[in-house]
Amino acid sequence: NSYSYYNIKKTLLDFEKMSDMELSLQNDLAVESFFDYKWINGVAFIFMLFILYQLPQERANGMLPLTRTASGGRGRLAVCRQLIIAGLTALSVTVMYTSTLICSFLIYGASDNINAPIQTLQSFSMYTHANSQLDFLIISCLKNILVVYTIVCIVWLLLAVFKDRKTVIIIMAAICGAE
Questions:
Q1: DSSP track, 61-96
Q2: CA–CA separation, 78 vs 66, rounded Å?
Q3: 121 with 28: CB under 8 angstroms?
Q4: pLDDT at 139
Q5: Whole-number pLDDT of residue 92
Q6: Which of 48, 69, 34, 50 is nearest to 148 (CA)?
Q7: Which residues have CB under 8 Å from 18's CB, separation 6+?
């Protein structure tokens, strides 16, 4: 009745679901090398930092009082900015994913069957869900969109709280250094 015992039983049940899966030897070097590339989120985040620095222009050009006094001005502006941030984050991560995958296919050759189970890749041999490589690529892209969007929102929050951009840069550098 211990946690370890139930964990062992759960692991056994998870792998039993995978017992009827047929794996085959394929040219998966392109997909394998794609998952080894770790800079997609970093490049998308740096792109989004440039976008974030351009959003609060009403402070610089003196439009802040007009925006605050307009009917629904601040609320509408906040919603529009979040839609811009979400859309551009999704676009930047998707473009980075797609371009990196295309480059990987051009360098290492196209995968024999991108619809093959993800378990055909050695690094995913213990993955217990029945997903194809394409399914996993899509799930991974969506997950990374969410991760980059969350980090960008945290930076946007820091930019909203601290009006001085230099302070935000120092705080971000301290957080990255601690990480």
A1: TT-HHHHHHSTTHHHHHHHHHHHHHHHHHHHHHHHH
A2: 15
A3: yes
A4: 93
A5: 95
A6: 48
A7: 119, 128, 130
The residue type of 178 is A
- CB atoms < 10 A from the CB of 29, how many? 15
Given a cut of 90, whether residue 11 has pLDDT beyond it is no
User: Which value, to the nearest 10 degrees, does the dihedral of the CA atoms of residues 164, 170, 176, 178 take?
Assistant: -130
Whole-prediction pTM: 0.79
Q: Which residue has the tokens 């976008």?
A: 51
How far apart (Å, rounded) are the C-alpha atoms in residues 120 and 113?
A: 10
CA distances from 135 to 15, 38, 92, 102, 178 (A): 19, 19, 20, 16, 34
